[in-house]
Write a structure and sequence with these properties.
With about 120 residues, this protein is mainly beta. It has 1 helix and 8 strands. The longest helix has 7 residues. It starts with a strand and ends with a strand.
Length: about 120
């Protein structure tokens, strides 16, 4: 049974990105459709668990929007205006609706990296 999850780590402060706002969207021929908007918990994860569970998994194109600058400003980090990284937009595909897709983000105000986790 497939699922989609995410986990965000704040590499500037060496901790989970608790309080960061994240939006999950599906992209199809009709445009972009918001599936979920959430605020990460103390562990930097969706407080509701998986972003998509087996019943909601559909192969296709998706987008995660991570609101980086508002998160760091809320932590008291002084950022330029405009911030170097405001929102990380991560477009990705899920080819297998029965697959496990974990999308971690490692982020600071000046850099980020991601990969397909397990």
């Amino acid at each position: 049974m497939g699922h989609l999850s995410t986990h965000v780590l704040d590499t500037m402060n060496g901790c989970p990105a608790a309080g960061m706002r994240v939006t999950l969207q599906r992209i199809d021929a009709g445009g972009t459709h918001t599936l979920q908007v959430l605020v990460l918990n103390d562990d930097g994860r969706n407080p509701g668990g998986q972003l998509l569970d087996a019943a909601a998994m559909v192969a296709g194109r998706y987008r995660l929007l991570f609101e980086v600058a508002p998160y760091f400003r809320a932590r008291g980090v002084v950022l330029p205006d405009p911030a170097f990284i405001d929102t990380v937009q991560l477009d990705f595909g899920m080819a297998d609706a029965a697959g496990h897709y974990h999308v971690p983000l490692l982020v600071s105000p000046w850099s980020y990296s991601t990969y397909r986790g397990s």
